[in-house]
Amino acid sequence: MKIALGQINPTVGDFSGNAAKIIDYSLRARANGAGLILFPELSVCGYPPRDLVERPSFVTRNRETAERIALETRGIAVICGLVTPANSETGKSVMNSAALLQDGKIAFLQSKMLLPTYDVFDEMRNFAPARSQELFPFCGNRMALTICEDAWNDKLFWPKRLYTVDPVEALIRAGGNFVLNISSSPFWIGKRELRRDMLVSIVRQYKVPVALVNQVGGNDSLVFDGSSIVLNPEGKTVAQGKSFEEDLIYFDSKTLTGDMHEQIAGEEASVYAALVLGTRDYMRKCGFQKAIIGLSGGIDSALTAVIAADAIGPENVIGVGMPGPYSSKGSIDDARALAKNLGIRFELLPIDGVFEAYRLTLRDVFAGCKEDVTEENIQSRTRGTLLMALSNKFGAIVLSTGNKSELGVGYCTLYGDMVGGLAVISDVPKTLVYRLSHYANSRRAVIPAATLEKPPSAELRPNQKDTDFLPPYETLDAVLEDYVEEMHSAEQIAADHRFDIGLVRRIVGMVDRAEYKRQQAAPGIKISPKAFGYGRRIPIAAKNEF
Description:
The protein is built from 17 helices and 19 strands. The chain has helices at 15-31, 56-72, 123-126, 167-173, 191-206, 267-286, 299-312, 329-342, 352-362, 373-394, 404-409, 430-443, 449-453, 473-485, 490-497, 501-513, 515-518; strands at 2-7, 34-38, 77-85, 94-102, 105-111, 136-138, 141-147, 178-183, 210-214, 216-219, 222-225, 229-231, 237-240, 247-252, 291-294, 317-321, 345-348, 397-400, 422-423.
């Protein structure tokens, strides 16, 4: 039988829109001779729904929508994800389920057994786990229907298992000979390769084919890459969907041959595509058509502007230059040149007069005090105020431009350069910012050469350089990766990299002290295994004596 994978981009809570996608893809697959089509985890309601599942009306709409999809897709069997009521002793009222829609009704229901609670996942908060799972017969096979994490506990692949049961193993022991997995598996660097390697381990161990359909699109901080895949029992990829865009692919369940659509390869290209998709979907799903970006002439704002122009079109991006008393003419020229190269609107709003007004207002109360970071922050907050004024006036979202390195050590100003509705590159270390910028220019040279070559500077005091306060970014990023993503101690980091222990402790201290800033930051797009945000829950009021 021809089986289809419907790699769609659902929106959380958009039952009518999600249903329309599922019905459209199903009818297209039926017209092309498919007898079964799979859609991603919780595709009916969108993933992750988080605490929306606590609303009875939300749960009811899941069932009603699935029943309507069943009635409108007669002639093809449909597997889709939805929230269902639970009769559970855990106190959780709902389950994360997969429904087989056939002949106008819900013919089979399977619920998720393994509920992840690490990183960005908190499914045990919302869902009750399935106590057992069953096979269902289809096209001459005994299908093992699993939901995302249910396939992520193979004892031969993982050095440390997170669960005591393995649903795939149990279903295959019960006679399953074909594994279907519907997923909403978020992207981060290396995730696609990890996902494929994990599935290869399963098929080679049990000698059964595996078909995985994955959600695509951005929902809040998460980006889902799609990259749906079908593997034969030897571990060979026999069908695959595109990365970072919706797709419909087919494979034959008997011959195990199918569509092979090209995927985006390479770290820079993949991260760039994820950032573009995440920005586009965040704006589209939140109802914003236009974006505003403060253009300093530096590399961070340049990359953010390039991403925004690709995401929503240059006609919908406004770049704002806000030179102050310490801004160089070169930076203003670079910002203007970038805007021209991208074809975006550019406005120049000098802040000298506003800054002087602040100083005059504060002159008496600051009498006898030396100028310090206070005056620097006033400049940054002046710019933040202007950006938010434009946002209010034009109904456009401000995209903040801080990178992960700066956010990590607090080299950013609350209510200044941190203002905005989305922090596009907040999970991108400075060294990767440069790599992505060169990648963007390899596609079309838009970022001025001077922006790529000049030493990074906030330009908030005379002759300022980032290295006045920070170590070289190559050093800083190495420490941040080990401390934030790997959770290594300062002593281990210093030993592994042969860094000065005093320097490492200073960086670690800055990371810890800046937690209060990060918890007030705009949401960012996750592209690393451990991003700042709700996947890293660190107390603000704490001491590091460990």
